[in-house]
């Protein structure tokens, strides 16, 4: 799959040789290259509980027109995911001039900039000696995490991500006594042009990767049902499920970290959704075989408590894009399997189950394990089927592989996007590109017999 091709030393010569095939090597290199770029489209979900897609699309077009200085960029509605809007990402731009004034940001901050964000003050690691508020500055991402905070110059590995205007001076950033807050650099020439959604229609729009939106449609929740989202933070899928249910019924959202549960509540409140109930609880302990106390509302739950369950179990996150800092080891990638299986075992006491994981081999292996361990839990077809089928491996039959959905960044052909080329591309080709050039993801759906 996409795990690093294994290498070993020849006992005769001491030189390295590859255990995997040349095809696997090429696929892995293609993956790393594609992961370092943002997806070809910014994907945003309309809160259809509060407004129509047509109305919000019109408001969004007006805002993008302002942000892009009257440039005409289409906003497309996905034909199979009707509440999803797609905005082409323009770039990489080759005509930007690098400036003498430099600011270095952390890799996570750099990835956010590549997807349309401005630079917030806590993300700035280093700045030129005489940088003042109002200065034009070139922004670089420290992809190896080696820049020392407060450095006046950095000669290590850095990636140019665009130009902006500094909102703070160097001394304000690094000599501040209290915690840094607020905007640090306003990006005016990002290398990838993507709209900023800072405080943009917050009750009506929610940024969400395309495969994540597919998951909620695959689960197909109905108004009035009781749904469990087992590892719910930050709440994108939770709120999508509630929206598809027209805020009728109950969506139980679990996460074992209190700050993450707070984020789910904030997102539900922002989107004006009332059917979501959140609990800070370890999902591996969410099943109670014995009788519950009368009136107990939260976890643990007795078997058959839910109509449908969504399990997006913790995973390596290898498929996230952009990601210019690759630090995974094979041990780390495979370390999530025991936890994923414990979580999956909890949901076996209920009816419809949709599971998702990253784009590594663990998705196939966990699917095979689930089928082998539970004969009454067959794979079932998923609609809409937007991703590709599963890759051969892990003992699954060709028919079973067709019932999986796999979004693989290595299969996308990276191509620069500019305004001129956009005008000549057919609508259906843009949709096809959006379906392929996205984050890595894996979806399997089971229905308990």
TrEMBL record:
<keyword id="KW-0694">RNA-binding</keyword>
<dbReference type="InterPro" id="IPR015947">
    <property type="entry name" value="PUA-like_sf"/>
</dbReference>
<dbReference type="InterPro" id="IPR049560">
    <property type="entry name" value="MeTrfase_RsmB-F_NOP2_cat"/>
</dbReference>
<dbReference type="InterPro" id="IPR023267">
    <property type="entry name" value="RCMT"/>
</dbReference>
<dbReference type="InterPro" id="IPR001678">
    <property type="entry name" value="MeTrfase_RsmB-F_NOP2_dom"/>
</dbReference>
<feature type="binding site">
    <location>
        <position position="312"/>
    </location>
    <ligand>
        <name>S-adenosyl-L-methionine</name>
    </ligand>
</feature>
<protein>
    <submittedName>
        <fullName>NOP2/Sun RNA methyltransferase 6</fullName>
    </submittedName>
</protein>
<dbReference type="Pfam" id="PF01189">
    <property type="entry name" value="Methyltr_RsmB-F"/>
</dbReference>
<dbReference type="GO" id="GO:0003723">
    <property type="term" value="F:RNA binding"/>
</dbReference>
<feature type="binding site">
    <location>
        <position position="282"/>
    </location>
    <ligand>
        <name>S-adenosyl-L-methionine</name>
    </ligand>
</feature>
<feature type="binding site">
    <location>
        <position position="255"/>
    </location>
    <ligand>
        <name>S-adenosyl-L-methionine</name>
    </ligand>
</feature>
<comment type="similarity">
    <text>Belongs to the class I-like SAM-binding methyltransferase superfamily. RsmB/NOP family.</text>
</comment>
<keyword id="KW-0489">Methyltransferase</keyword>
<dbReference type="InterPro" id="IPR036974">
    <property type="entry name" value="PUA_sf"/>
</dbReference>
<dbReference type="GO" id="GO:0008173">
    <property type="term" value="F:RNA methyltransferase activity"/>
</dbReference>
<keyword id="KW-0808">Transferase</keyword>
<dbReference type="InterPro" id="IPR029063">
    <property type="entry name" value="SAM-dependent_MTases_sf"/>
</dbReference>
<feature type="binding site">
    <location>
        <begin position="231"/>
        <end position="237"/>
    </location>
    <ligand>
        <name>S-adenosyl-L-methionine</name>
    </ligand>
</feature>
<feature type="domain" description="SAM-dependent MTase RsmB/NOP-type">
    <location>
        <begin position="130"/>
        <end position="449"/>
    </location>
</feature>
<keyword id="KW-0949">S-adenosyl-L-methionine</keyword>
<dbReference type="InterPro" id="IPR018314">
    <property type="entry name" value="RsmB/NOL1/NOP2-like_CS"/>
</dbReference>
<dbReference type="GO" id="GO:0001510">
    <property type="term" value="P:RNA methylation"/>
</dbReference>
């Amino acid at each position: 799959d996409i795990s690093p091709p294994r290498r070993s030393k020849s006992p005769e010569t001491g030189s390295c040789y590859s255990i995997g095939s040349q095809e696997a090597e090429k696929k892995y290199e293609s993956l790393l290259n594609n992961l370092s770029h943002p997806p070809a489209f910014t994907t945003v979900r309309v809160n259809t509980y509060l407004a129509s897609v047509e109305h919000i699309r019109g408001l969004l077009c007006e805002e993008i027109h302002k942000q892009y200085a009257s440039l005409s960029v289409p906003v497309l509605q996905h034909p199979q995911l009707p509440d999803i809007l797609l905005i082409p990402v323009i770039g990489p731009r080759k005509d930007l001039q690098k400036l003498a004034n430099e600011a270095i940001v952390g890799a996570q901050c750099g990835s956010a900039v590549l997807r349309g964000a401005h630079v917030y003050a806590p993300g700035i690691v280093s700045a030129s000696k005489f940088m003042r508020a109002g200065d034009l500055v070139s922004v670089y991402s420290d992809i190896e995490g080696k820049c020392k905070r407060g450095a006046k110059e950095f000669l290590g590995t850095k990636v140019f991500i665009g130009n902006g205007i500094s909102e703070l001076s160097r001394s304000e950033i690094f000599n501040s006594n209290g915690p840094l807050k607020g905007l640090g650099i306003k990006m005016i020439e990002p290398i990838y042009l993507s709209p900023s959604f800072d405080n943009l229609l917050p009750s009506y729009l929610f940024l969400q990767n395309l495969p994540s939106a597919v998951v909620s449609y695959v689960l197909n929740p109905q108004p009035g049902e009781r749904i469990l989202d087992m590892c719910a933070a930050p709440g994108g899928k939770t709120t999508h499920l509630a929206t598809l249910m027209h805020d009728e019924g109950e969506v139980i959202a679990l996460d074992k970290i209190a700050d993450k549960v707070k984020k789910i509540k904030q997102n539900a409140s922002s989107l004006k959704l009332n059917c979501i109930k959140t609990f800070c609880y370890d999902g591996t302990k969410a099943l109670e075989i014995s009788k519950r106390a009368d009136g107990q509302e939260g976890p643990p739950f007795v078997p058959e408590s839910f109509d449908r369950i969504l399990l997006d179990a913790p995973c390596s996150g290898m498929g996230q894009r952009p990601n210019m800092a690759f630090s995974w080891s094979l041990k780390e990638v495979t370390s999530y399997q025991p936890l994923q299986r414990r979580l999956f075992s909890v949901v076996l006491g209920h009816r419809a189950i949709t599971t998702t994981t990253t784009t590594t081999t663990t998705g196939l292996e966990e699917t095979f394990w689930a089928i082998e361990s539970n004969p009454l839990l067959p794979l079932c077809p998923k609609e809409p089927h937007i991703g590709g089928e599963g890759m051969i491996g892990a003992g699954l039959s060709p028919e079973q592989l067709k019932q999986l959905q796999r979004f693989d960044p290595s299969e996308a052909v990276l191509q620069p996007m500019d305004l001129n080329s956009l005008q000549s591309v057919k609508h259906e080709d843009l949709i096809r590109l959006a379906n392929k050039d996205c984050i890595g993801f894996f979806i399997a759906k089971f229905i308990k017999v």
